[in-house]
Amino acid sequence: MLNFLYPARCLLCHLPGRAICQDCLAALPRLPRIRCPQCAVPHTGLANTRCARCQLDPPPFSACTAAFSYAAPLDQAIHQWKYHGRLVWTRVLAESWLETVGPLTELPEALLPVPLHWRRLASRGFNQAGLLARHWGRALDIPVLYHYAKRLRHTRQHARLGRSERLQDSETIFQVRPLPVRHVAIIDDVLTTGGTVSALARAALTAGAERVDVWVLARTLHPHT
Ligand SMILES: [Zn+2]
Ligand SMILES: [Zn+2]
Q1: What is the CATH number of domain 31-219?
Q2: Distance of alpha carbon 215 from alpha carbon 201, whole angstroms
């Protein structure tokens, strides 16, 4: 049973050993070290300075912790995990993230996984953000708020909307019950435009959060294209 859950071969190169071997772990596409602390986009400025976009039009979340860039072979791994139900990836991806981000400071009081619309949850059978939150919550001893956020409908093509439309649109995507804590981290697998996590962050702030962070496995490197 344990072998089934956590195979004794590397999922990427199939060599016997850990579920992801040291070589394959080292070869996962990491984000460049100099990146925006607020949205995790790499930039060419000084370390620990925000990107131009966050300075001009800051997102509603305070910080983004991401480990990887959404590129090969991680993109295929995430695809197998989410769309082909290869749940063995949950632990591998969650642990690789923990190993890569290193010790975290200013831990949130609770984790808030991005919920799926109930129809998508029914067809997929699991919520990948919830699985990550469970793993990270256990590893870091942080409670997970599973049933506080509800997705009212599928996200529209957020990036195509203007700013005011985006704001209006996001108000109706998520509903969050009054939160029992002030500092939460939203959990998702991949950050692309940031539209989804921004919408949930706004809903969490409305529901009583004072600080919202974002933790994602990976972010795309060309979020605005
Ligand atoms: Zn390997
Ligand atoms: Zn930024």
Answers
A1: 3.40.50
A2: 12
